[in-house]
Amino acid sequence: MTVAYWIIAGLLGLFYLYAGGKKIVQSKERLRPMMGWVDTVPMPMVRLIGVLEVLGAAGLVLPPLTGILPGLALAAAIGFAVLQVLATGLHLSRGEVRETGLNVTLIVLAAAESWLATIWL
């Protein structure tokens, strides 16, 4: 279970660190080719989502690694699942059904991470 937790935490952490970092530092014009939804969401909200993604990535890794408040890892995993459910809804509302595959994959990974966190932590 420990190995499974760290593999999924690493994958999710790297993904959200990258995606969140891009949302924090890049302009709307630079984000638009990858994330067409930025046109319908105010940039302060895009930046907030990026900050939450980076914090969530840290929350998956640092608490279990340090042993300080390891329950935060469970909260981060649940937060990522909720974030992706909302993102799926946004894509569906924009008629972007084909773009939801990544969202569903991230929901499954976050749910697995939540389950592993309840067992292992």
Automatic annotation (TrEMBL):
The keyword Transmembrane helix is assigned to this record: yes
Topology in the lipid bilayer: Multi-pass membrane protein
Keywords associated with the record: Membrane, Transmembrane, Transmembrane helix
Location(s), subcellular: Membrane
Pfam family, one: DoxX_2
GO cellular component: membrane
Major localization class: membrane
Record-linked InterPro entries: DoxX
Transmembrane segments: 6-25, 45-62, 68-90, 102-120
Protein name: DoxX family protein
Organism: Herbidospora solisilvae
